[in-house]
Amino acid sequence: EKGGYDHFMLKEIFEQPRSIADSMRGRINLDSASLQLGGLRDYLDKIAKTDRIVIVACGTSWHAGLVGEYLFEELARVNVEVEYASEFRYRNPIIKEGDIVIAISQSGETADTMAALELAKSKGAIILGVCNVVGSSIARITHAGVYTHAGPEIGVASTKAFTAQVTVLSLIAIATAHKKGTISQDLYRELLFGLDAIPAKVEKILKSAEKIKDISKLFTFASNFIFLGRGLNFPVALEGALKLKEISYIHAEGYPAAEMKHGPIALIDEDMPVVFIATKDASYEKIVSNIQEVKARKGRVIAIVTEGDTLIPKMVDFVVEVPRTNDLLLPLLTSIPLQLISYYIAVLRGRNVDQPRNLAKSVTVE
Ligand code: F6R
After folding, report:
1. Which EC class does it fall in (predicted)?
2. Catalytic sites, residue numbers
3. Ligand 1 pocket check for 68: Cβ under 6 Å
4. 362 CB near ligand 1 (under 6 Å)
5. DSSP characters for 67-93?
6. Is the full-model pTM beyond 0.95?
């Protein structure tokens, strides 16, 4: 049932070319350069007219929500707030009739997310779901939604569900932007073609698994890790840190790279591994100087870089390359090497990666 893989988590990491493609299938049509989201047919108008979207989720799904925030704001020019579902409901949140609330949940059974939706619904919000499990509680109480088609996720640490969530949020943001006229036809086409090309690019990254395993060997006994990224790669940094904590039990933190100088830089010494997500995007120059700051303090750096980058490989200890894509689609690529780093470190430490201690696949208690 693990399809020849040692663990479900590894199988699910390797399934991502297909699970991402499945989450787009029947939705993107390249011949006509068009995008259809059947599940939102009656709601896209309302999403396009709203001036505020609230996203509620927990854990990895909350990280996907943060990626969604960048996408909606950049493409559809709409104000987005991403809330931990548990905090949202205990705070007398300001929700008015007709506000759009989107829940993101792999299992569709997370109690905190469910309770946040019930509260939003009682205040008259339109509640939408991005769920993986068909017919789950969240899928049933929402007015409408778009399923991720990642297939069953067995490993407790979420991997393919995350990239499927990011794929679906990209589709919703692009469809909203197209409807509102906030993106050009050229960018619309570029993003649809860009998404279509993602599965093959993920496949290419997965070919670096052996290299990533070799790098991971050198960090097996680290007791801390810092993950840094900017822009859309900031939520990827948070997700990289969460994954490592969950399955290897190594203390890890994710930060926006520019925040480092406001405190965490005090942690940097020769024993501190730092993972930079340092692709050639709008923040490239800035992240190069953040890397210099860490290297000047002897931090050990693993950088996720764009294929063909010649500068960063000279500055850091190890690099893993990802193919080029539109900046807005980068999380679909940059999250993959981080999943593999966590996986290999956890295996090398002898952890039970599919069933980490203290964690359950769906958290149905508040
Ligand atoms: C992370 C993880 C958890 C879940 C969180 C939300 O690997 O598995 O953080 O992401 O409990 O679960 P869902 O998405 O099912 O609502």
Report:
1. transferase
2. 361
3. no
4. yes
5. HHHHHIIIII--EEEEEEHHHHHTS--
6. yes
Nearest atom of ligand 1 to the alpha carbon of 113: 16
Q: Decide whether any atom of ligand 1 lies within 6 Å of the 86 Cβ.
A: no
- The C-alpha atoms of residue 222 and residue 204 are separated, in whole angstroms, by 28
pLDDT in tens, the chain (366 residues): 899 999 999 999 999 999 999 999 999 999 999 999 999 999 999 999 999 999 999 999 999 999 999 999 999 999 999 999 999 988 899 999 989 999 999 999 999 999 999 999 999 999 999 999 999 999 999 999 999 999 999 998 999 999 999 999 999 999 999 999 999 999 999 999 999 999 999 999 999 999 999 999 999 999 999 999 999 999 999 999 999 999 999 999 999 999 999 988 889 999 999 999 999 999 999 999 999 999 999 999 999 999 999 999 999 999 999 999 999 999 999 999 999 999 999 999 999 898 888 888 888 877
Indicate whether residue 110 lines ligand 1 (CB < 6 A). yes
Nearest to 220 by CA among 249, 199, 196: 249
CA angle 24, 28, 29 (to 5 degrees): 145
Q: Which atom of ligand 1 is nearest to the CA of 156?
A: 8
What ipTM is given for this predicted complex? Answer: 0.98
Tell me the C-alpha distance between 103 and 125, whole Å. Answer: 12
- Strands 144-145 and 251-256 turn out to be unpaired
Nearest residue (CA) to ligand 1, atom 5: 59
| Residue 59 alpha carbon to ligand 1 centre in Å | 5
**Among protein residues, the one whose CA lies closest to atom 11 of ligand 1:** 59
